[in-house]
Structures are given as structure tokens and as C-alpha cells.
Design goal:
Layout: H1 2-18, H2 24-36, H3 38-109, E1 113-122, E2 125-134, E3 137-146, E4 152-158, E5 163-168, E6 173-176, H4 193-202, E7 204-210, E8 213-220, E9 223-228, E10 234-239, E11 244-252, E12 269-270
Parallel strand pairs: 6-12
Antiparallel strand pairs: 1-2, 1-11, 2-3, 3-4, 4-5, 5-6, 7-8, 8-9, 9-10, 10-11
Helix pairs in contact: 1-2, 1-3, 2-3, 3-4
Length: 273
């Protein structure tokens, strides 16, 4: 009866014994019993064989899983690498285009003789600004047309010594002085590397034709900006959100001294600032 009880105890301990989870005293007890009991010894051998077989199968499954995992990881890494390369190529292309346009625009705006014309249409209102710039002197003529309103006409003048604005709204004529008047060619590319990188990241840049003129279309949200390929200057901007369209025109080296003569201020009332 005692032997049967010992067999049950040993057989219950065999899995832990095979896994080497039992202590030395227990191991000694089990081994002494196995030396004396053929039945338990046979059970032990079969159990050990099954466990080894299960371990081999488990190891094979683990190896297959690791290989499968590594293959997936390798595939994902390659996909990410391809995406990164494409991203760098796309951003690099846009950055190169924007930098080239910036350089051209910077060269153009340093010229001291140019004529600009800006026409803006927005919600039933149209404004036209013609600007003559020569040797640091600027003369601008602006007209603003609105529905059911008298047109407003403005003459903006800036020299090295004075700045004035003549405003005629159809009822009164006033002469104002302003802190500054800057009328320069317009460009929408960045002024430095950081700005061009940001524009390249946040906008789309496509080469298109506008009125048979090659330009780059920069889309930024609801805004479309058309940049002249040759000069880097803006030739059109469409603001869809505010329903506003602006056209730009430039001519260089055509302004004469007579185009920037100080306007006649007779008949205008001076407005104190």
C-alpha cells in the first residue's frame, strides 16, 4: 500500500523533476524510487520523451514565429525606407524649386527701377494700384471701386525726405502723412532656408501655365499662388476662403524721372497726425 502511495507521489512530481524544478532532497527521493520501481521508471522515460518532443515542437514553432516576425519587420522597414526616400525626394524637389525662385525674386527686388500693377477683386470691390519706383522714390496711384459708392482715388508718394498720401473719395480731398509706404514686387517664397523648408513641407508645388506663361503653382490650404518661373515673383493669387483674387504685373528699367515727380497737393486738406 505504501509503495502505491509512493508511486502516486513520484508520478505527480515527475513533471517538475524533468523540468528541474524540484530540490535536492526531492530529487534523491524520486531517483531512489525510480531505481526500485520499473513502472514509474517507464512512466518517467515516456514522460521525458514526450516532454522533449513537445519542447522540440515548441522550439520549431518559436523559430518559425521569429522568422515570420523578422520577415514582417524587414518588410515594414523597407516600406518605411521607401516612404522616407520618396518623402525626401518630394520635399527636396520642392525645396530646390522654392530656393531657386527665392534667389531670382531677391535679385529682382533689389533693382531700383521698376513698375508694378496690382489688381485685386474681392466681394464686389475692385482696387487697382500702379506703382512707379526709381532711385528710392515711389509714386503709387490707387483706385478703389465699390458697388453703389463713389470710387476712392489715392496717390501715394515717398521720397528720401517725405511721405504723403492724397485721398479723394469723391466728396473730400485730404492729405495724409504715413509712417512708411513700401511698394515692392511681390513674392511668396521664403526669405531663407528655414522658411523654404517649411513651405516645402506644408504646401504643394506644381509647374503650370497661366496665360501661356510658365509658372509654379503653390497651394497652401485655400490659397493658390502663381509664381513666375523666370523672375520668382507672384503673378496671381487666389484666396478662395475670402473670395479674393489678385493679379500682379511688373516691368523693370522702364520708369523715368517724370513718372516719380511729387504730385500737386493743391486743393487737398491736410489731416494732422
Amino acid at each position: 500500500m505504501k509503495e502505491k502511495k509512493d508511486c502516486k507521489i513520484v508520478q505527480d512530481l515527475l513533471p517538475n523533476y524533468i523540468e528541474r524544478l524540484t530540490n535536492n532532497d526531492t530529487n534523491k527521493y524520486i531517483e531512489e524510487h525510480l531505481n526500485e520501481c520499473e513502472e514509474c521508471k517507464k512512466i518517467f522515460e515516456n514522460m521525458e520523451k514526450d516532454l522533449k518532443l513537445n519542447n522540440v515542437k515548441r522550439d520549431e514553432r518559436e523559430v518559425k514565429y521569429i522568422k515570420k516576425y523578422n520577415n514582417k519587420l524587414k518588410f515594414l522597414r523597407n516600406v518605411l525606407l521607401i516612404i522616407l526616400v520618396l518623402f525626401i525626394i518630394i520635399i527636396g524637389r520642392k525645396f530646390f524649386i522654392l530656393t531657386n525662385l527665392s534667389n531670382k525674386a531677391n535679385n529682382m527686388i533689389t533693382l531700383n527701377n521698376f513698375y508694378t500693377k496690382t489688381e485685386t477683386y474681392s466681394n464686389g470691390q475692385m482696387s487697382i494700384l500702379e506703382s512707379y519706383n526709381k532711385d528710392g522714390i515711389t509714386l503709387g496711384n490707387m483706385s478703389i471701386f465699390s458697388e453703389n459708392k463713389n470710387p476712392i482715388k489715392m496717390i501715394l508718394y515717398k521720397s528720401k525726405t517725405e511721405i504723403i498720401a492724397l485721398i479723394d473719395n469723391g466728396e473730400t480731398k485730404t492729405l495724409n502723412t504715413f509712417g512708411d509706404i513700401i511698394i515692392n514686387p511681390i513674392y511668396f517664397t521664403g526669405e531663407n532656408i528655414i522658411e523654404n523648408i517649411w513651405i516645402a513641407l506644408t504646401t504643394s508645388v506644381d509647374k503650370v501655365k497661366l496665360n501661356d506663361k510658365e509658372c509654379y503653382l503653390i497651394r497652401d490650404g485655400n490659397t493658390e499662388k502663381f509664381i513666375d518661373v523666370d523672375t520668382g515673383l507672384a503673378i496671381k493669387m487666389i484666396d478662395n476662403q475670402n473670395n479674393r483674387t489678385t493679379d500682379y504685373k511688373y516691368e523693370f528699367g522702364v520708369v523715368k524721372d517724370s513718372d516719380v515727380t511729387k504730385p500737386n497737393t493743391e486743393g487737398y486738406t491736410i489731416v494732422e497726425q
